[in-house]
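Please go through the sequence and fold tokens given here and tell me how the chain folds. Record follows.
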Amino acid sequence: MSHSPPSGSSHPTTRVLAMLELLQANHRMRGGDLARRLGVDERTVRRYAARLEDLGVPVVAERGRHGGYRLMPGYKLPPLMLTDDEATAVVLGLLAGRRIGLPAQATESALAKVQRVLPAALRDRVQALRDTLEFTLAVRDAAAPDTGAVLTLAAAARERRRVRLRYRSWRDAETERDLDPYGLVFHSGRWYVTGHDHRSGEIRTFRVDRVVSAEPGAARFEIPGGVDPVQHVTRSLARVPYAHEVEVLLETTLDQARRRVPATTATLTEQDGGVVMLARAERLDGMARMLAGLGFPFVVRRPAELRGHVLDLARTLEEQARR
């Protein structure tokens, strides 16, 4: 577990506030633990505690070998103080959260709490933003994972701790497995965790919204060299089985092809003076439209039926052009 001070906490006032956050999040903390978390010595921690008391925050210092610091029971933080820019950033982040796969109930309740503690004038301006802002992305409630699962997997990945996973497949079948989580990846509105799955003996990718439960265990692990969770997730998604396997030679460079073809859609390899694209498709008419939209000359290698769909698309476009 890292004991480095919080990011951006070099200023003494920032460290005092960081100490208040630590005491809010923990029932009590020993002076040595606070010192390590804040990157200071214990004498400075005592000075920070005195500074908090000067600010009206009741910090209780417990003496003795097992002593430490805690907040007076029942103490609550004063109203939230945000600048206009900070309040706008928080609200925009929460509003966008539902569009990228964050739990709707949590984002709505957080928005309500933030607005309740804002000054009246700023609250009205923030409400105007909520009333008038529109998004091109639809709400992704169905892909929102359980917050507890996200936090458990994130902590396990950071601490290199194995987890016991109960997982529900797309066929609604539940399995239990031990997973060494290498990292969390957010992609296209969904959360994924990738790591070594002891059930299959392979590196696997799992959708976090299908995780029924995640329990950290005592076993530890090391991440093998060269493992990139983002690359593994994108490659795994590109290999998801579909109705048709497609191989097309694109007459372009690898760099140009990568700019137009997402890694989750296909695998690209330099070959035969061009780029071989291997992909899977549920519908060949959709693949024909995708190839036409790339803007590169291409040669269909397989399946042969794809050529017919490309010709159908060409005839349709010709008819539209002649109207």
In short: The first helix runs from residue 12 to 25.
